[in-house]
Amino acid sequence: MSSLSRDDVANLARLARIQMSEEELVSLSHEFTVILDAVARVQEVASADVEPTSHPLPLRNVFRPDVVLPSLSTSEALSGAPAQEESRFRVPQILGEE
């Protein structure tokens, strides 16, 4: 059984620059003990033949070939624009010149 004493928790709080009351220090020392015991139980179950994973299912990227397909020409894309300038959409300025 692993445990952290009240003084261990106080030292951790000091390192993290967290002010804690005496009541919080005692309470957290019990909570940390429960957490450490849970981690110790998990470590008991893990064996050398089980590969460590970060996810229960295998993760893989799905790629598709990058194929160039016909698309709109500049004039076709701008044909429905209310305003255009230098082969681009013209939009109202929303920010100042600064």
Radius of gyration: 31 Å
Strand arrangement, major sheet:
1-2
- Compute the separation of the termini in Å: 64 Å
- Approximate helicity band: 25-40%
- Give the averaged pLDDT, no decimals: 87
Helix/strand/pairing category: mainly alpha
Number of helices: 3
* Major β-sheet annotation: 2 strands, antiparallel
Number of DSSP strands?
A: 2
Query: What best-fitting shape do the alpha-carbon axes yield?
Result: elongated
Beta strand %: under 5%
Q: In terms of per-residue confidence, which ranges show pLDDT below 50 for 5 or more consecutive residues?
A: none
* Element order: H for helix, E for strand: HHHEE
What tags apply to this protein structure?
mainly alpha; two-stranded antiparallel ribbon; single chain; 98 residues
